[in-house]
Each structure stands twice: as C-alpha cells, then as structure tokens.
Design brief:
This protein is mainly α and 101 residues long. The protein has a domain of 60 residues. It has four helices and no strands. The termini are far apart.
C-alpha cells in the first residue's frame, strides 16, 4: 500500500496529534505506579478517538453526522497506529536487542 495515500487521508492539522500521543505514551511509561504497559496503545487509541471525533465534529464540520464520525474514527486509528509504530521503530533503532551482540 502507498504510504502517501494513507498520510494524505489524515487532515494536516491533526499531525500534531501524533506527536501528542507519542509524548503521552512516554509519559505513561515513566509513571512509577503505572505498571500495565500493555495498556498504553489502548489508551493512546482512546485519546486519539476522543480528540479526533470532537475535532472533526465541532471544528471541521460543525455537526456529528455518520460520515464525520466514520471519517474521524478511521483517521484516529491511523494516527494512533503511527504514534505506536513510531515508538517501536525508535526503540528498535536505539536500544540494543537481546539477541544482538
């Protein structure tokens, strides 16, 4: 699949949400009381869904029609996936793997 097609589907003003989600994930990881790191992608997806749906419904369209909600859900899933994938890529490139020598 062409990445340009995926990226072009996300509204340009929502790209800052990728950075926000990435930072939110790092913040959650640093909280000593938060031990369920497996929940971080789910929390990021939930935050992305909430922010994107509200933004699309209030700011862009002015109403919550089914097409606005579906479009916002698709965009929010892509945004959260990019944030989580970006974190994994950074970890793979910067941290030594257990099997590497």
């Amino acid at each position: 699949m062409d990445w340009n097609a995926i990226i072009s589907f996300i509204r340009p003003e929502l790209f800052v949400l990728i950075i926000f989600l990435y930072c939110l994930g790092l913040f959650l990881k640093k909280i000593p009381a938060f031990t369920a790191e497996w929940l971080i992608p789910i929390i990021l997806l939930g935050a992305s869904l909430f922010i994107t749906i509200i933004y699309m419904g209030v700011v862009v369209e002015g109403e919550f029609t089914p097409i606005v909600i579906v479009t916002a859900v698709i965009q929010s899933v892509i945004i959260a996936a990019i944030a989580v994938f970006g974190n994994e890529i950074i970890k793979q490139l910067t941290q030594k793997r257990k099997f590497d020598k």
